[in-house]
Amino acid sequence: MFADLSPADQAKYVAAKRAVELVEDGMKLGLGTGSTAAWMVRCLAQRVKAEGLRIQGVPTSTRTADLARELGLEVVTLDQAGHLDITIDGTDEFDSALNLIKGGGGALLQEKIVASASDRMIVIADFDKHVPQLGKFPLPVEVLGFGLASSRDHIARLLADHGLAGCDITTRKQGDAPFVTDEGNFILDLHLAQIPDAPALAIALNQVPGVVENGLFIDICDRVILGASDGRIEEHVRP
Ligand SMILES: O=C[C@H](O)[C@H](O)[C@H](O)COP(=O)(O)O
Any catalytic annotation for residue 93? Predict the structure, then answer.
């Protein structure tokens, strides 16, 4: 199943496999979204099959739900599960405080709800995702379609107040059409380059009418597991 992987996939697999080792029989899990999280779903399905684990999974996107079902995992909604033991997800960036930028795949809203309903959030990634300061990866913000231009202008003014004047804000596209999230909303990508005060910006963005959620995950992630293509693993725990 895991033969002939590219170095990038080997790194993701190594991190995913390690995270799945922390899963115990009877747990309810949040299943993240993205290429790294997909490896976690595959590794989890393999363990469930081999060891007969009783696991319920709450997916954070239709993509992950489809993959989990295809591999035979039991999929339930967050409300059916109630409380979750662990969410395992990927990230686009993380800093040394284990704050994250997520949403490169557009799943940030369900990811944040699911991670926040979990006792622990474990992030899996390759070493390149570790940054000294968040912001190089464009910050995704999920917004309602109603009043999109007005919300974008409001965000631009807010960024200026946070010392980030003049940053480009783009509407995410899928082909020629706007990208639409699982919840039927749009994504604005904020090209900030650096975010001097991520906790403050995360709170401020969610005050803008029309903003549904932003991709800054502050004080949510408990542990990051990094994998490398040579099998090396590094773990960071939130101080
Ligand atoms: O919306 C997508 C998620 O936040 C992903 O977890 C994130 O973009 C990382 O994806 P990948 O593992 O493919 O780099």
Answer: no
Q: Is 33 annotated as a binding residue?
A: yes
ipTM value for the complex = 0.99
How far is 134 from 156, CA to CA, in rounded Å?
A: 18
- The whole-angstrom separation of Cα 219 and Cα 100 is 9
Same fold: 7-130+219-229 with 139-214: no
72 φ/ψ sector (left φ>0, alpha ψ -120 to 50, else beta): left
Residue 106 CA, ligand 1 centroid: distance in Å: 8
CATH number of 139-214: 3.30.70.260
The pLDDT of residue 239: 75
Q: Domain spans of the chain? A: 7-130+219-229, 139-214
Q: What is the pTM of this model?
A: 0.96
Q: Which of 111, 142, 183, 213 is catalytic?
A: 111
Q: Is 21 helix (H, G, I), strand (E, B) or coil?
A: coil
pLDDT tens for 182-215 read: 999 999 999 999 999 999 999 999 999 999 999 9
The amino acid at 29: L
Nearest residue (by CA) to ligand 1, atom 3, is 103
Residue 38 CA, closest ligand 1 atom number = 12
Number of H helices, E strands in the chain: 7, 16
Fold that domain 7-130+219-229 belongs to in CATH: Rossmann fold (3.40.50)
- For residues 110 and 36, what is the distance between their CA atoms, to the nearest angstrom? 17
Handedness of CA 66, 21, 218, 95 (dihedral sign): negative
Nearest to 205 by CA among 174, 167, 239, 176: 167
